[in-house]
Amino acid sequence: MSNSKAILDKLEFKLVAKEFAVFSEKRHICWQLVQSEVPGLPFLAFKQRLHSREEKSTNQEHSREEEDEEDDDAERELEDDQATLVTERCDTISMEYHVVYSESYQVPVLYFNAFHSDGKLLSLNEIWDRVPSLHRQRIEHDKWTVITQQEHPIFGRPFFQLHPCHTEDLMKQVLPNSSKSKSNYIVTWLSSVGPLVGLHLPLVFSELCGDG
Amino acid sequence: MNNTVATPIHIIINSYSIGDPDGVPCRLCVEYNAFEGPGHISSHLFPSPGTLINFNTLNAFREIDKKNVLEQSAKQIWDDIKSGKAITEPFLLSRFMLLTFCDLKKYHYHYWFAFPALVTPEPVTVHKPAQRITDVFTSNQVKSLQKEYDSLVKTVPHLGFFLVVQDGNSIKLQTLDKANKVSKKAKVFYGFCDPCTLSEHPGWPLRNYLALIASKWPSQEPISIICYRDRSREGQRSCDHSIVLEVNLPSMTDMKDCPKCVGWERNQKNKLGARTVDLSSSMDPNRLAESSVDLNLKLMRWRLIQELDLEKVQQTKCLLLGAERRETKAATAAEKLKKIFPGVTSSGHQFSIPMPGHAVGKSEAALKQVQEDVGKLEALIESHDVIYLLMDTRESRWLPTLIAASKRKLVVNAALGFDTYLVLRHGLKTDESEGSTASPVNLACIPGHRLGCYFCNDVVAPGNSTRDRTLDQQCTVSRPGLSMVAAALAVELMVSLLQHPNGGHAAADTSAKDDHLNASLISPLGLVPHQIRGFLARFHTILPASLAFNKCTACSESVMSGYREQGFNFLLKAFNQPSFLEDHSGLTTLHQEIDYSEIIAFSDDESVKSTE
């Protein structure tokens, strides 16, 4: 699809999202196009798990009564079970990404959430700690405006968001000028902003872009 | 067992994946749609049916017989194996148990998973350790296996356990029910979809699978197992990291009783105990409101004003005085504040503010009541940082003004006319300044301690203004939007003032000669005027400033020292004797000094009343 506009209208979004999802499926990459009744627009969803650098439990504050007791009976049962391999406890972070169209900004917006393995949401500070340092310096002064926490427009739950106010400017610089070259807005956009929040589009997506 | 145990028992479906990158520990995913049955699971995930037991008390959660719970689940698996159900529906081998207790006040969730695994009567021994599948099969065979799996899964979705039949060079996949139909000369591998990513070890689903094999297809020979792992990276799909092992499996065909079972999950400390998670930060509406306000303030600071002292804004204690006539208004107001921001500490107090010129009753009870009310007001003013005066009448502002001035508290006054409003911050005295109203001062920039209060511009004392008033005069009627504009400005003025390095002592910015457009801003939020006077008819605002008056009935040296030295008795005289304040402050003398013969004429439509 030849599109060198820095913004998208609803229909254009639907088309690029569909193209993105179909391509994903073919390549066994798990982006899904989800229909949603609320805004009448589909959104793209993706999940992945990342290692956490923290190996500690997320729950540091426990009152005395709540301290979890060890179950001695269970411990005894398992004592002579040689078939269980006990490994190091380490936490992984589950990330969930949604690409949702914003009518007011006329661009796609990246919403995401990150959970510890016990289901607890990461805090905004923890999210910031995970932004790669090379990106951090660039946006340090704008910190809270770039990644912020909002109500998800469809689910109403708290979700982190990459604020869309800079998207149009970014895309003006990054989209190809020539209308002859093929591009997929979402691929171009997501490959630029995704790495801030741990989302790396596999290189194979470049097949959707390039000189036609 | 007491009857608070629990209930109800739910059947839920979870899922696991075999596509994780190396090093990621296997996990079973329990999602919000787990109650909806197996239909919702994505095609590349595998179902695991389970039972959730929710307890009503923490004790019940802790005291449930864990051994019993596990045994019940084991029995289900064993029955499915014995009856052959596990052959046609092998996902039943991957059962789990989940015990939960939810403290819904604190949003603390206690939970414990068990993944029951039947233990073979004698240990299973390794005949040949794990090898990569590419070391056992040719790459064509591996590709073929993958293709076979994909096509089998089209007819049997989410198939987690299958037979890999190697006949010569060909590789074919079969469902478990075909086990007895396999050709004798073919080699059978027992395959299963393995969530584990370790190169030397198989995943947990293998344990019950082995129990099934040992019961239905025992063998003296070692059996071969394929731990099938399938992942995509960079758009490339591969199952090359799957592993093959050979084990010696003791027979279980003659076992009647359910075998022993293990499977309680270890917690974060690697001990056998439950886990707890505190989800209040994302579920408790109070916490959510707090963090959203906090984020808003942070945004203001980062984006706009780096120097904003957020703590100061959050920690300032405000006292709002007003709402005289209606009984429950104070308590209602406090409640409403909590609705807007649950994290606010707010309380309503109901009492009367005594006023000068409004005589206190003669009875002891009346006197006692007034004394109590004064005491209450003094205590409230003492314990707050900022006092907002929002009353209907002029004289009711007198007492709080005097008390706040002597306690050196910040005061913001808001007063409404029909279409005009006044927002005024009282000057903040210093200990040295009480007597210094004589020294010269730059009127263009009056310092904070020389600024006037609400009464400084008056030449008559506040008296009983409600007497001799007609009904429409008794109740101030204002244009509807006025109160909101004045209230908002009162708050913003206060916040700007607090952000100024000199606080209440900040000099007043004025709009005289358009100074307000050119003055350099010292407070990060901008100007700190003394007064904001608005005229709604013209949508016009001016910022005047006025000096403290040395004969002010509320904040002059003589009045303040009278209060300081005589306390309640001084106040009582002011309440009871209409002329007391004028006499004491020196206003009476001032009036007497005026030579009326020097005045040429009074204009007809002027009055001596001050604004309210």
Automatic annotation (TrEMBL), chain B:
GO molecular function per UniProt: Atg12 activating enzyme activity; Atg8 activating enzyme activity
Ranges where the THIF-type NAD/FAD binding fold domain occurs: 327-502
Cited Pfam families: ATG7_N, ThiF
Domain of life per record: Eukaryota
SUPFAM superfamilies from the UniProt entry: Activating enzymes of the ubiquitin-like proteins (SSF69572)
Alphabetical GO biological process terms: autophagosome assembly; autophagy of mitochondrion; cellular response to nitrogen starvation; piecemeal microautophagy of the nucleus; protein modification by small protein conjugation
Gene3D superfamilies in the cross-refs: NAD(P)-binding Rossmann-like Domain (3.40.50.720), Ubiquitin-like modifier-activating enzyme ATG7 C-terminal domain (3.40.140.100), Ubiquitin-like modifier-activating enzyme ATG7 N-terminal domain (3.40.140.70)
Name the record gives this protein: Putative ubiquitin-like modifier-activating enzyme ATG7-like
Organism: Stichopus japonicus
